Structure formats: structure tokens, C-alpha cells
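Give me C-alpha cells for this 54-residue protein.
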Amino acid sequence: MDWAFGAPTLGEIEKRLRHLDTPWAAASLVALESASLQSLEITHALLPWGRQRT
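Here you go.
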């Protein structure tokens, strides 16, 4: 999970999930593909920002 979702971009996350080729990765891809791309981009940008906050 850390390896797949630790990627620097959403495109790389998708690549890593496809590379894993497991039921969990396939389910994760379905969930990502059903979500709003704009929401995913915003969330992906905010996570590192939030880690720097107390």
C-alpha cells in the first residue's frame, strides 16, 4: 500500500497498482477510476501539505 500510494503523481499510483496485479490493487483502481479526477488531484496535493502541519 505504501509503495503504490507513495508515488509522486496519480498517474504513477495507477501504474504501480496495475503492476501489483492483485485483487486489492484491482479494487483500488476501480475506486480511483470512479472518483472525480479533480478531487483526487486536490487530495493528492493536500496530503503532503497536511503532513507538515501540527
